[in-house]
Amino acid sequence: MNLNATLFAQLVVFFILALFTMKYVWPPLMKALDERANKISEGLAAAERGKHELAVAEKRVQVELQQVHDEPTLSELPRLLLVLVKWLHLLATPRSHLLNVRPPHP
Predict the structure, then answer these.
(1) pTM for this one?
(2) Gap between the Cα atoms of 22 and 9, Å rounded
């Protein structure tokens, strides 16, 4: 066989292989790569949302801890009990004088 014919045949086969690859192999590969890139970008976005949600949760925990810290302690218990007794006394007193109603005489 002639060297030029061999080179020409190899060139034709190479172009046929390149066209076949471009038409049938390359598009699924590109689709898979694009899907993977989308999954990676969605994962990064989810990670950012997670960081933001974590920061919000940490702030909420700090606020709740501050509220717990601000709640009354045992040293304030006598004062709170005194307030409670006053409220109970107010609830136990008759309210007829507020309505200007005299209790019936026996």
Answers:
(1) 0.49
(2) 20
Residue 29 three-state SS: helix
Distance from C-alpha of 29 to C-alpha of 24, rounded to nearest angstrom: 9
Half-sphere exposure of residue 43: CA atoms within 13 angstroms, side-chain side: 6
The pLDDT tens digits of the residues spanning 42-69 come to 999 999 998 999 899 889 988 888 877 7
Dihedral sign of CA atoms 22, 23, 26, 30 in order: positive
The CA distance from 104 to 106, in Å, is: 6
Domain ranges (residues) in the chain: 3-93
Tokens representing residue 27 in the block: 């598009």
Name the phi and psi angles at 58, rounded to 5. -65, -40
Helices (H), 1-106: 3-20, 26-70, 77-92
